[in-house]
Design brief:
By secondary structure, this protein is mainly β. It has strands spanning 12-14, 38-40, 61-63, 84-86, 107-110, 129-132. A 6-stranded parallel beta sheet has the order 1-2-3-4-5-6, with no helix packed on it.
Length: 133
Amino acid sequence: QRRVHGLPRLVELDLRRNALSEIPSSFWSAAHMPVVQSINFRVNRVQVINTAVASLQTLASFDCSLNALTSLPTQLGALIHLRRLLATDNHISQLPVGIAALPRLNFIALTKRFFRDGELDALQCDRYECELQ
């Protein structure tokens, strides 16, 4: 297992199309990527996002589309600088508490067919742009 460390100036991380099935918990450390603003790991096979994602307090854009996720960690609701959340083409059926209230969130993309009726009512699509596929 490889570790990510020593990337103090990394602002954008693009891991798309790498056939990743998991992202180790050590990856999600703000100590390794203290100023990261954008993470893109779309088109992989990731099933779980570690709860340590909450330590990435500078994160503004998070794209986890086209993976094998069934849920998003509740800790995403702590990312107060998050502006864009893309999670389409997964099997996510419930949004974590706090996502809809993120103060800077202005774009969210989800695949709505996995949500029950009324489940997405908490999203204030008049407040920010929603893309529900």
